[in-house]
Here is the input.
Amino acid sequence: MSFVEPLESRRLFCVLPHDESTTAAQLAEHAVPAAATTTTTASATSEAPTAAPAAALSAVGEINVRAKGAAAYELGPVTRFFYIRRGGDLSKPMTVRYMIGGKAKQGLDYNVVGDRVTIKAGNHLRRVEVTPILDEFIEDNESVTLTLLPDPAYGIAAAETAATIRIISVENTHVPEPQPPLGPTVNWSTVAAAQTKRSEAMVAVVNNRIWVFGGYLDATATNSGRVDWYDPAANQWQNVSTTMPTPASHGGAAVIGTDVFLAGGYTGGRGGGQTFAVNNVWRYDTVANTWHALPNLPSARGGGALVALNGLLHYMGGSDITRNDRAEHWSLDVAGGATEWTTRAPLVTVRNHVGGVALDGKIWLVGGQQDQDADEVPQPALEVYDPATNAWTSRASMPFGRSHIAAATTVWRGRIVTFGGETTYQTSVKNVSAYNPVTDTWSELSPLPGNRSSGVAAIVNDTVYYTGGLLATTTWKGTLG
Here is the structure.
């Protein structure tokens, strides 16, 4: 059963165009006074000065504001943003003043956003973050409107002087049905074998196909750029006519729409030896079969986790180029077009070869290990990150520590499930462990048919598929009994 907080304390966002029927008097009713603090929780985001949104503005320093995005379809606090853009000369910083109105109250219904922000020199974009505050009141839908105020330093685009974000109360949203029970019986069978041996690959599910990226294809620990997909409906594997721009293993993978995002990892191998951390970030368009470079990670990492949540990519943990474990946690606002990563709360437990998933509007990190190879110490830790508070919380630990589960940890019927893994160096297990966030407990499901680690697991149509690991080609299919 999925965890659902009391209805009166949960809210959603829906971003809509500015309502022209809102009067100046209505806006002024809740406006921030001129003497109010200029401190704001707005997040600075830089973009290339030649990008289209700024280029479309007047060369004399015209600004506009938009509220980008659509309805948020999951329960829980969901951050949305006003995007303030400028054109013209970007060589100097620009302070933009605005008035906040609407029925929602700053500091009561959502975070305090102040009355101005400064766009840094060289940047044309600044975003203003709006995050709801959980309360115990049953309320109607409310709105937050940001209206740009005139200033001698800039002009205002006539068509985009204001934007509105609506806060949709849970009383007016659909509450999803509870998830059916999970297990404990999983009936395993063997389906079509993969076309190549594989270990330490990355995995993604797009349009009911399981995409597998890179990894090791043989015992030389040479990183591959090969891409394959498996179609469960046809029980067929296909080698895709593309290769990863940076052949890699041990990378993080996440999906937004039909795009797959890959970050970090190991590269190289064989004669030249491996590089144990890279900072590359790629977006792969599965429809157009094209690759696009995104802003690099702030530092090279391998063996960390990449999770997509609310239009943002989060990269956490892993090890650096010297194979030392790191606690850094960064996010990239893909939906907002950010060109640099933002620092978030660091991990509580540093680890690599770790599993990461999104569930109930939060990010969960599972297992992993500290140190490397013969010195590895598998970790049982489970920790959850809440983007609304930018904080990590420890939850019930796994029954025992295990690593090499980065691509074999997924969400199944509202539970976090991890398949196989490594308990000591080169010692694999076949355990399938499921975590229930409602009861904060772990349970065991029917094990894999054989011991595996470093494989990939994915859910398609309520059925799990596990392939590869330990340089195997075997693919197992698991259905609930």
